[in-house]
Amino acid sequence: MKASIKNIFTILSFLTFSISFAQNIEGVVTTSENIPLEAVNVVIKGTTHSAITDNSGKFIIDSEGRLPLTLLIQYVGYKTTEIELTAIPVNPIQVALKEENELVEVVVSSRRRIEKVQDVPIAISVITGKQAEQTGAFNVNRIKELVPSVQLYSSNPRNTGINIRSLGSPFGLTNDGIDPGVGFYVDGVYFARPAATTLDFIDVEQIEVLRGPQGSLFGKNTTSGAFNITTRKPSFTSGADFELSYGNYSFLQAKASVTGALGSKVAGRISFSGTSRDGLVDNVATGRPTNTLSNQGIRGQLLWTPTVNTNVIFAADITTQRPDGYAQVIAGVAPTQRAAYRQFNAIIADLNYQLPSLNAFDRKIDHDTPWRSNQDMGGFSLNVDTKIGGGTLTSTTAWRFWNWDPSNDRDFTGLQVLAKSQNPTRQTQITQEVRYAGQITSKISGVAGVFFIDQTSQTDGTEESGNAQWRFAQSSTSALWKTPGLFEGYGIKTDANIRASSAAVFGQIDWAITDRLHVLPGLRYNFDKKDAHYARTTYGGLQTTDPALLALKKQVYSDQAFDSAIDNTDFSGNITVTFKASDKINAYGTFAKSYKPVGVNVAGLPTNSAGQPLLELAVIKPEKVYHYEVGVKTSPFKNSIFNLALFQTDIRDFQTNVQAAELGVNRGYLANADKVRVQGVEVDASFVFSEHLTVNGAVTYTDGKYVKFTNAPLPLEETGAPVSFKDVSGTALPGASRWAGSLGGELSDRARFFGNAGKIFLAVDSYARSEFSSSPSASKYLVVQGYAIFNARLGFRASQGLSVHFWGRNLLNKDYYEQLLPAGGNAGQYAGVLGDQRTYGITLKYSL
Fold first, then answer.
1. Sequence-distant contacts of 76-82: CB under 8 A, at least 24 apart
2. Where does the secretion signal sit in this chain (predicted)?
3. Alpha carbon 244 to chain centroid distance?
C-alpha cells in the first residue's frame, strides 16, 4: 500500500513538473546590434506575472496555462515590443529591441501605405498620441504650439479657421458658403466643419500634418494641407488605459480606453474623454466666471476580421460641448472717421456707461447677453480594407452631423445694444470614398480613388436690438432717433440654407526610374455644386406707419432675400521628383496646380445706396492655386533629423472674409481678392544626444501678401470714410506671422516607481510667433503683438502600470491675444480673444 502511494506520488510529481516545465517560455533580449540587455521587464499582458532578464539577456516566464497570450518586452529607453503567442515555443524567443528615440523609424500612412516619414517627399510633421498626451495637446489649438506652420483662430467653435502656412480659411468670422482649404480627417473620414478642430481628441494614435496641396492623395480637395488623424484600433489582446488630470481653475480631465476580444474574429474598443474647467474671465454683472470648459466625448469601434486579408471596422462617436464661454473682452477703442458724436467713447458717455476695465488682461466683462456655445458633433463610419493583388482596396462610408446652438454679445459691453445674436445651425454630411493603393508593377506603385460628399446646412437665426441700439446706430442729429421703443425688440429672423455636393476622381503614381530617383505625377478631376437660399425678415420694435421712423429702422435692419446656384468642374494635378542622394539625404521638388471650389454667401449681403443687396457678391469665384516647393530631408547622424523646405504659393481669386459695417450682414460676407502670394522657409529638427537628452525644434518664416486686392473693405479706423473700399495691394495677409517657432527638450533617466520600470523626466517646451494682422484690411489697431509661452512637465512614465507627472502651461504668465476683432456695427470698439493665463496641475495614468 505504501509502495503504491509512493508510486502515485512520484507519477503526480513527474506530471506536475512536466506540465510546469511545458508552460515555461524562454527568450533572449538584445539591442538591434545584438548586445544582450540586462534587467528587461517581461510581462504577460493583462496580468501581474513578470520576469527580468539576466546579464545574458535571458528570461524564463511561466505562461500559467494562458494561451493565447501577449508578452510585453519593456526596457527604459527602448520601444515596448508586443509578441503574441498561440502556443508555447519550442526554442527560445529572440527579441531585438529598438531604441525609443530612433526618430527616423516614425512611419506614416498619408500616401495610403506604411512608410518612413523621412522617405515621404512631402513636408510633414508627426505628433504621436503619446506626445500629444504628454504635452497636454488635447485639441488642434494645442497642436499649433508643436507645429508652428499651423495656425488656428477661434472666437467660438463655429467661427474657427485652421490654416497651414497662413492659408486655408478666410481669417475672421466663418461663412458656411465656402470649403476649408485644410482637410481634416479622422480614420479616413473627412470632417467638413472647422468646428471639429475645437473638440477634444479621443484615443488618438497619431496626428500627421501635411503641408501644401494634397488633392491627388485625399478624397476632399485640400489646397493648403491636411490633418490625417488615426485613432487606436481594437485589439484581440485585452488592454486598458485610465488617465486623470487635475489643475488650477478646477481643471479636471478624465480619459479611459478599454479594448479586447469579443469573439474569435471580433474585437472591440471603447474610449471616453471628458474635460471641465472653471472660467478664466470674470463677469462682474453676473458675479460668476465665464469661458469655462465642459467637453464630453465617447467613441466605440468594432473590428471584424472575416479573413486574414480583410478587416472591417465600424466606428461611432459623439462629442458634446456645453461651456459658458467664448466671451471676448474689449481690448481697445479705435477712432473712426465718423462724426464726433458717433465715436464709441461719446456714445457710452451719453448713455452713462463705463467699461468694467480699460485693461483687457484684467479679464473682466459685464456682458448682459449670456454667452452660449453649445455644440454636438458625431456620426458613424464603416471602413473595409481588403488585400487584392499587390495592394489594398479601401472603402470608407460615413455619416456625420453637427448641431450648433449659440448666444453671443456682439457689442462686447453691458449695454443692451444687441440683445440677441443667435444663429443656430444644423449640418449633416454623407461621404463615400473608395481607393486602391499598392504595387502595380515592379517599378510603379500608386493610389487611385473616387470620392463623394453631400452636405446640407440650415441656419435659423435671430438678431435683436436692445434699448441702447438707437445711440450706436444714430447717423444724424435728428431727434427722431430718441423715439421711445423705436429699436427695442427690433430684429431679424434669418433662414439660410445651403446644399453642397462634390465628386472627384483622383490618383497618383510613384515611378521608380532608379532605386534613388522617383517621379510622382498626380491628377484630380472635381465636380462641385452649391445651392443656397438666404432670407431675413424684420420684426418687432415700435409699430409705426411714419415714413421717417421706418426709414431709421431700415438703416439698422431691412428685409433681404436671394437665391444662388452654381456648379463648377476642374482639372488639377501635381508632379514631384524625389532623389535619394544617400541613405541619409532625400531631396524633392514639387509643382502643384490646385483649386478651392466656388463659394456662395449665406450670411447676408451689403446693400447699395438704394438699400438693395449687392447680388454680384452672392457667388464667389473658385480659387486657383499654383504651388512650388523644394525640400531636403536629412539624418546627419544617428537618431537625428534635419529637414528644410522652401515654398511659394500663388492664389488667384483668393476667397477672403469681409467684416461689414452693416449689422444685418451677419458674420461678414465673402469676396475675392485678385491675387495672393505666400512664400517662406521651414526647418524641422530633432536630435537624440543620448538616452538621457532629446531636443526638438521647428521654425518657419512666412511672407504672406495681397499681391492685388483693390476692393478690400475699409479698416476699422477708416469706417465712415467717403469711399466704401480700399486698395490694400502689397499689405500683409491677416493671421500671417513672419516668424513662428517651437523648441523643446527632455532630460530623463531610468527609474522604478511602485515596482514599475520607467523613466523619470523633466521636459520643457516653448512656442513663439511674431506679430500679425487681425483684420482683412490691415489696421494699426488690430495688430496682435508677438508673444512666447513656456511649458514644462516633471514626472515618471512607464509603458505599463502607474505614470504620474506635474505640468505647467504659460509658466511666465504671459498676457497675449490670440485674435482681435471689431464689434458688430464697427462703432470703434474691438475685442480680444485672450490666451490662457498660467495653468498647472497633475496627471495620473494607469495602463494595463
1. 76/750, 76/751, 76/757, 76/758, 76/759, 77/101, 77/691, 77/750, 77/759, 78/31, 78/37, 80/799, 82/45, 82/237
2. 1-22
3. 23
Angle at 738 between CA 732 and CA 742, to 5 degrees: 145
pLDDT in tens, 531-568: 999 999 999 999 999 999 999 998 888 898 889 889 99
Q: Pairing mode, if any, of strands 124-128 and 204-211?
A: antiparallel
The pLDDT assigned to 49 comes to 66
pLDDT at 107: 73
The residue written with cell numbers 462703432 in the block is: 827
Q: Which parts of the chain register pLDDT below 50?
A: 1-2, 4-22, 104, 664, 666-667
Degrees, nearest 5: CA angle 798-804-805: 115
User: What DSSP element (H or E) covers 140?
Assistant: helix 140-143
Listing DSSP states for 443-494 in one string gives SEEEEEEEEEEEEEEEEEEEEEE-TTHHHHH--S--GGGG-TTSSTT-EEEE
Using the structure block, give the residue that is written with the C-alpha cell 452713462. Answer: 352
DSSP state of 12: H
Other C-beta atoms lying within 10 Å of the C-beta of residue 288: 12
User: SS in 3 state form for 801-846?
Assistant: EEEEEEEEECCCCCCCEEEEEECCCCCCEEEEEECCCCEEEEEEEE
Q: Strand, coil or helix: what is 552?
A: helix
* Residue 158, amino acid: R
- The single-letter DSSP state of residue 835 is P
Domain annotation for the chain: domains and CATH numbers: 24-99 (2.60.40.1120), 107-231 (2.170.130.10), 239-847 (2.40.170.20)
CA distance readout (Å), 683 to 132, 319, 623, 640, 701: 21, 35, 28, 13, 9
Coarse DSSP helix, strand, coil percentages of the chain, rounded to the nearest 5 percent: 10, 55, 35
Residue 51 DSSP label: E
14: burial class by Cβ within 10 Å (0-12, 13-18, 19+)?
exposed
Residue pair 674/137 in contact by the 8 Å Cβ criterion: no
DSSP, res 718: G
Which residues, 6 or more positions from 612, have their beta carbon under 8 angstroms from its beta carbon?
Answer: none
Q: Which helix (H) or strand (E) holds 133?
A: helix 129-134
Q: What is the largest CA-CA distance in the chain?
A: 124
Q: What angle do CA 287, 292, 298 make, to 5 degrees?
A: 145
pLDDT in tens, 724-751: 788 999 999 999 999 999 999 999 988 8
**pLDDT at res. 17:** 39
Strands 693-708 and 623-634: unpaired
Q: Give the C-alpha distances (Å, rounded to integers) separating 588 from 228, 513, 579.
A: 21, 14, 6
Q: In sequence order, what are the beta bridge partners of 305? A: none
Task: Report the phi/psi class of residue 165: left, alpha or beta, with left for phi > 0 and alpha for psi in -120 to 50.
Answer: left
Residue with cell 512614465: 797
Grid coordinates 481628441 are at which residue? 201
The residues near 617 (Cβ < 8 Å, ≥ 6 apart) are 601, 605, 606, 669, 670, 671
Grid coordinates belonging to 170: 478666410
Cell numbers given for 30 = 538584445
> What is the residue-wise DSSP string for 741-772?
EEEEEEEEEEEEETTEEEEEEEEEEEEEE--E
DSSP secondary-structure letter at 435? E
**Cell representation of residue 307:** 479573413
Computed on alpha carbons and rounded to an integer, the radius of gyration of the chain in Å comes to: 30
The answer to whether the beta carbons of residues 225 and 182 sit under 8 Å apart is: yes
Instruction: Name residues whose C-beta falls within 8 Å of residue 398's C-beta, 6 or more positions apart in sequence.
Output: 189, 190, 379, 380, 381, 382, 429, 430, 431, 432
pLDDT score of 839? 96
As a whole number of Å, the end-to-end CA separation of the chain is 51
